[in-house]
Amino acid sequence: MQPPVSLDARTARILPWLVAIAFFMQTLDGTILNTALPAMARDLAENPLRMQGVVIAYMLTVALLIPASGWIADRFGSRRIFVTAIVLFSVGSLLCALSTSFNQLVASRVLQALGGALMLPVGRLVVLRAFPRSDFVRIMAFIALPGLVGPLLGPTLGGWLVEYASWHWIFLINLPVGVIGCIAALRFMPDLKGPERVRFDTLGFLLFGAAMVLVTIALEGLGQMHMSHARVMLLLFGGAACMAAYWLRAGRIDAPLFSPKLFHTRSFAVGIFGNLFARLGGGALPFLLPLLLQVALGYSPAQAGMSMIPLALGAMAVKSLAKPIIDRLGYRRLLIGNTLLLGCLIASLATIDGQTPTWLLLVHLGLIGMVNSMQFTAMNTVTLVGLSHADASSGNSLLSVVVQLSMSLGVATAGALLGGFTVDDAQGSEVLRAFQLTFLCVGGMAMLAAALFLQLEHRDPGHDDDVRRPVDVGE
């Protein structure tokens, strides 16, 4: 590892704030949009139940770029890439606000995601290289705070902006922050490059990316795009072939994008696949819940946004309890039980209707937030805890990709289920029933991940190395 670079006192104070604000922009944008989807659908003459492409385009683009972010920063310099990321994010936000069609909005979201995908990884890399290791945990804890505030503020702010202004403002509010961020980055962001040129696995990147895109489009094809089953099967087959080609190639080259040797660590393999499948349920909730409240139950955008607050509050409340509970129960028992509980709570959302008391709904969502947060923390930690120091960086990068990919697939799967259960010209109780059946299916899928966590050893991984500290990957 490179020694820390020399920073003047003012830069050392402001740099963590700069990265934290970039994280806040990213997390806020990930949650502020969901409450606005019905209003956006009305303006763009789209069905609100088929707006998931706007969410998926962002998540999938972020997942695609994460593996390349470190190499790009090392190759072209951290300051240039960080400023470019803010510009792309801001220009994409402006184009989103100016969009007059669904396809234009999706394309603008892709551009916005190009910036969002680079901001946080490059910022983290600069902090890692610019500060001594003794300060790294403290600074990263500070940078992670906006990740808790963004999901708390996002749905409520989105709902209020839609109700009292227009949905365009959920994107326009990024512009002044982007201008300030560019000025601050040009002044205070160190311009760091890698110590030596490292060859990037371009072919592996293309194969891995193609697999993610093809599988996601296939799921989207079942929902929003109404593709024929033949086309969906061809896309799934193509995605599987690309992924198989990637892993076969990765096993015989020296520096693959992600080495298959990572999966020789049992806890990492279980954690990666557990993350992929367990997050299908949790990733679908921020998309499904605002739609349920507004489209099926008649909530206003502001009411729907405020109803999402218990999810974030529950997640924040359980953060400090994660380590003691993991220490007491162990990863295997906790993840099996917590996964089953989370699936049951998601499936039980099928009982919500127009007669459900508001207080009961809020308590229900608060419990889901708590259980979901415990699930994410335990899964992230068990995935990385058994890796050697040499494999930790690559393993963390793959985990970050899987987190984004699984949330994207969760939204795509929920959209496909919702589209499949919704009859033509559905109204009132028919729309509500489609949501109820979707929640039952999504909860059932989340519960199936418990079978993966059964494969963990009874003895916790990393127990002897005292590395069982809970880990968060941008949550």
UniProtKB/TrEMBL annotation:
A GO CC term attached to the entry: plasma membrane
Location, primary (coarse class): membrane
Places the protein is found: Cell membrane
Any one Pfam family match given in the protein's UniProt record, by short name: MFS_1
Bilayer-crossing regions: 12-33, 53-73, 80-100, 106-127, 139-161, 167-188, 200-219, 231-248, 268-292, 304-322, 334-352, 358-386, 398-422, 434-454
PROSITE patterns, A to Z: MFS (PS50850)
Top-level taxonomic group: Bacteria
InterPro entries in UniProt: EmrB-like (IPR004638), MFS (IPR011701), MFS_dom (IPR020846), MFS_trans_sf (IPR036259)
GO molecular function, one term: transmembrane transporter activity
Membrane topology: Multi-pass membrane protein
Keywords, in A-Z order: Cell membrane, Membrane, Transmembrane, Transmembrane helix, Transport
Protein's UniProt name: Multidrug transporter subunit MdtD
Organism encoding this protein: Stutzerimonas kunmingensis
Underlying gene: mdtD
